[in-house]
Amino acid sequence: MSSEETRRRELTRLEDPVTRPLKAYAFDPSRGRVLGNEMTVNVPYQRLVRGPVVKEFTYDGIAVIDYDGANGLWYEPIDLDDPRVLIRGGLDPSESDPRFHQQMVYAVATETIQHFEMALGRRISWRREERQKGTPKGWRPGDILALNLYPHAMISANAFYSPKAHGILFGYFKADDKRPGHNLPGQTVYTCLSHDIIVHEMTHAIIDGIRRYFTEQTNVDVPAFHEGLADIVALFRHFAHKQVLLDTIQRTGGALHKYQLRPDAPISADDWYEPTEKEKKAASAQGPTLTAQMRLRNPLIELAQQFGEARGTERGLRSALGTKPNSNDIKRFTEPHQRGSILVAAIFDAFFSIYLRNTADLFRIYRAGGGRTDGGELPDALANRLASEASRAAEQFFQVCVRALDYCPPVDITYGDYLRAIVTAERDLRPVDEAGVRDAFMQAFRLRGIVPESASFFSEGRIAWPEPDPALPPVPGLNFGDPNGLTPEQKDQNGKALRAYVNENPETKKLLGFDPDLDVSVPSFHPMFRINPDGSLRTDMVVEMVQKKDAPLAEGMLDFGSFPLRGGATLIISKPPVNVIAGVGPYKKDPNAKVEEYPPAKVRFVVAKHLHGSEGKVRENRQRQYSQRIGLLDGKDPDRFQINFAMVCEGL
Amino acid sequence: MKRTLNKITRAGGKEAKESRSQRESGDEEQLRVRMYRVGFGDFFLLTVPSKKLGPQHVLIDCGVTTGRTGKGDIGVIKDAVAHMAKETGEKLALIIATHRHKDHIIGFSRCPEFQRFKGKVGAIWMPIWETEYDQNIRKIQNGMSALALDAQAYVAAAGDRLPHGEDILAMLDNALGMEQFGVTGSGGGSNAASLAILKNGFGVKPKYYQKGHNPELPPELVEAGLSAEILGPPPVDAMEFMKLTDLRKGVGQYLGASGNENEGEKKRFRPFRPEFDGKPEDYPAAAFLEWESRSEEEIKDPWQQLKNAIDSAQPDVLLAAVKRLDDFLNNQSLVVLFTFRDKKLLFAGDAQAGNWEYWLYGPNQAPTTTPSSSLADEGRKILGRLDFYKVGHHGSTNATPIVAVDAMNEGFVSMCSTQADSFGSEKNNSEVPRIPLLEALAKKSAVARSDQLAVKIQGKLVDPAKNAPQELPRPKAGRFDIGPCYVDYLL
Question: Which CATH architecture describes the domain A22-210?
Answer without folding.
Answer: Roll (3.10)
